[in-house]
Known about the structure:
- This protein is of the alpha+beta class.
- The chain has helices spanning 2-29, 79-84, 112-116, and strands at 32-46, 49-58, 72-77, 90-96, 99-110.
- The model has no long low-confidence stretch (mean pLDDT 86).
Amino acid sequence: xxxxxxxxxxxxxxxxxxxxxxxxxxxxxxxxxxxxxxxxxxxxxxxxxxxxxxxxxxxxxxxxxxxxxxxxxxxxxxxxxxxxxxxxxxxxxxxxxxxxxxxxxxxxxxxxxxxxxx
Length: 118
């Protein structure tokens, strides 16, 4: 009888560990989707070490960087994404918890220049 109780407790402990591991994985690796407006763009570095930055005022909360709506934050992004947008463009992007200042997936929602000149 004791052996079965120990086995049952062992199975319950393993199940609990699996659930906890799944929750930790979900929190750590699920991207956070944020929307905002590009306020500033900048490039730093020389030759092979060039970095592209955008400063975005968030329209939704950014839980990765603990930002509420209306706050501004500087993010690093790829050259391709950097060239997609202009200042005042509305954007939607994804952040990963382990790379809080790096944009993972970047999309233009509305171009300021196209909407301004209509």
